[in-house]
Amino acid sequence: MKNYWSSKLSKVIAVICITAHPYIVSAQFSKQDSKIEKGQAEEKYLYPINPGQPGSLAGTMGELRSTHFHSGIDIRTNNMIGFPVRASKSGYISRASMGGNGYGNVLYITHPDGNTTLYAHLDQFKGPVAERVLQEQYKLKSGEIDLFFEKDVFRVKQGDTIALSGNSGGSTGPHLHFDIRDSNNYALDPLKVGGFKEIADNIPPASEKIALVTLDTDSRINDRFGRYEFYSKQAGSNYVIANPILVNGTIGIEILAKDKLAYKSPFYGGVNFFEVWVDSALVFRQSIDKLNVAETRSIYTLMDFKTMRSKGTRFYKLYIDDGNELKFYGGSPTSGKIKISPAKTSTVQIRMKDSYNNTSTVSFRLRSNPVIREVSSLEPMTTDAVLYDITDNTMMITAKAGKDLGARARVYTKGVLEEMDPTYSNINRKVYLFDLRKNIPDSVQINNKTIRPRIKIAIPSGTEYKYYSDIMDIQFPVNAIYDTLYLNTDYTVDKTTGNEVFTIGTRTVPLNKSISVSIKTTGTYSADAKYHVYRSTGRSYAFVGGEWQNGRFQFNTREFGEFTILRDIEPPSIRPVYVNNQTVRFKIRDNLSGISSFEAAVDGQWLLMHYDSKTATIWSERLDKTTPLKGNLELTVTDNAGNKSTFTQKIL
Q1: Is residue 379 part of a domain?
Q2: pLDDT (tens digit per residue) in 525-574
Q3: Which residue among 170, 194, 218 closes a domain?
Q4: Phi, psi (rounded to 5 degrees) for 40
Q5: Among 194, 229, 611, 615, which lies 20 to 30 A Cα-Cα from 401?
Q6: Backbone φ and ψ of 161, nearest 5°
Q7: Secondary structure element (H or E) that encloses residue 178, with its range
Q8: Phi then psi dihedrals of residue 548, to 5 deg
């Protein structure tokens, strides 16, 4: 821990944590604060981009993203950078961060009412805080910096220009991300709290599809087990599915719904309020009024993760699934899991509402239908292969049927053989369902083909668990998984590359926390530290890292999938865009492990380089804008495997 004193502020102490570069800057408080703050606390929120003029959005609070709930609103800037960003309320800048990913360049303003506003993806800061951030970047010799300030260091008034809008960090296009957070760091809906007149919205949410899901082995949808999607047809402001859907057992409903943000706009927001009514009785309610930004991965219990991973679509689950501990269901009378009474047709209505209370509905009918074994609607198989899939506690195996193929499956469990008839079938295909809570098959033989699920163990959720085998050891911390995990592992050697492949779980199953893995290899790996673990992602590889210890590779991962060990000996590439005495700009890329760090200096004096990961670009910013760059420039770029490239040029 080091202490630094500011020459501009009296009695100011900055405390540095070296690992993450956070600063806390404190100062004496003014005795007149209480009167000023009382008036400021009563200020209404100001729209931060062109206040008083019509605005438009590209995203809303609660919207489903791939890894998190969207915590605020995305304010459009006409695909341009450089719009003045105004302080929404009076207060003080409590935090300033700069980085190449995530929020990018971001400011936080804390207000007398206890709330904090956040302004992200900024191009540059304005005012005294910009100078202070630049000074500390040079002091710490780090472009990525996270500074925390206390009251009276950087006070702002409502409407002050605090920054210019940009496209920094993980932004996919120029815009301003704007949050309002309470004193407990919960994100509130800016459209409700702010009441911005700049945003006009009278368009209700839209439904594209619903999906029905069987929730146990005895449930059916149109005589089948699984998950099935149905298009909804628009009827005025509402949506309908005309034909009744045959169901049996316990069913869950999902919906693919969006909120169009303006007429002729290509952008959609999320839908934060749902109700499900069955025969005029409320059975489910979900209301996303605020978000705990520290629990972003909890989205995987509300969104259908498997469908998102396999198809790219994000369905809301309109039932409370196992492992879902979100606080969005205070007004829900049940978990939303529906069991239709025998010999009955029930009417289901889903009500959707956006932040401006625009409301629409989706209506359809569920008709009770008894379970049957001969299902005439099963389509022909397009392959001779035997297919299997695991959903929750059920494994479903599907195979081709026909007169020349036997119907029964030979199931081996712990060395014991049992023959099994199809759960349901027709002349085209046969389907077998296994309740994994009762038995986990070692292998199943159908049509003279054998499949091995390679499920090693059932791991209960909410507990710490350690799995050991000859090939790999895995440690699961408490709450690493959301629901019971049927852990499948495997070891193979790629016939084309000769690389060892270690299968750990399935990529369509989410992890809440990182797990620790130790894999025992049979290959020969030199100790030059260029070998690391990578996760296969389609035809490419994602760097995981890890280290060689006692004949094993040790690593941590927050994703299941297939892992291999690769050697990266190729250094990063450096391509100058321009180099002059005002600024330098480069494109930096790496072919495998990825960029780890970069550092530039002129005649040995450290030079700040900003980084945009989207465009693989770095560029300089001088501490003293009046002094041109002059001397020997040296830029070193290092990848995650430790390979280095160096660029040198004399700047005249």
Answers
A1: no
A2: 876 779 999 999 888 999 999 988 888 899 999 999 999 999 999 999 99
A3: 194
A4: -65, -35
A5: 229
A6: -80, 115
A7: strand 175-181
A8: -85, 120
214 and 346 share one domain: yes
Q: Reduce the secondary structure of 560-620 to three states and give it as a string.
A: CEEEEEEECCCCCEEEEEEECCCCEEEEEECCCCCEEEEEEEECCEEEEEEEECCCCEEEE
Q: How many residues does the chain have?
A: 652
- Residue 70: which CATH number? 2.70.70.10
Which tens digit of pLDDT belongs to each residue from 113-123?
999 999 999 99
35 — pLDDT class (breaks 50, 70, 90): low
Rg for the chain, CA atoms, rounded: 29
d(CA 232, CA 238) in angstroms, rounded, equals 9
Does some domain include residue 621? yes
Residue 7: the pLDDT is: 28
Structural domain containing residue 9: 2-194
The answer to whether residue 22 scores a pLDDT higher than 80 is no
Structure tokens at 132: 């202070």
Question: How many whole angstroms separate alpha carbon 151 and alpha carbon 259?
Answer: 39
Give CA–CA dist 482/326, Å, rounded.
Answer: 12
pLDDT tens digit sequence for 298-342: 999 999 999 999 999 999 999 999 999 999 999 999 999 999 888
Q: How far apart (Å, rounded) are the C-alpha atoms in residues 64 and 315?
A: 9
CA angle 343, 344, 346 (to 5 degrees): 160
Residue 457, both tokens: 């163990």
pLDDT tens by residue, 140-149: 999 999 999 9
Q: Is residue 53 domain-shared with residue 185, that is, in the same domain?
A: yes
- Give me the number of domains the chain comprises: 5
Residue that has been written with the tokens 């105004």 in this structure: 86
User: Do residues 516 and 486 lie in contact, with contact meaning Cβ atoms separated by under 8 Å?
Assistant: no
In the numeric block, the tokens 């910096």 are attached to 145
Q: Rounded to an integer, what distance in angstroms lies between the CA atom of residue 154 and that of residue 94?
A: 8
**Rounded alpha-carbon distances, angstroms, from residue 423 to 63, 382, 451, 633:** 39, 20, 18, 72
Distance CA 477, CA 513 (A): 7
pLDDT single digits (tens) 406-416: 889 999 999 99
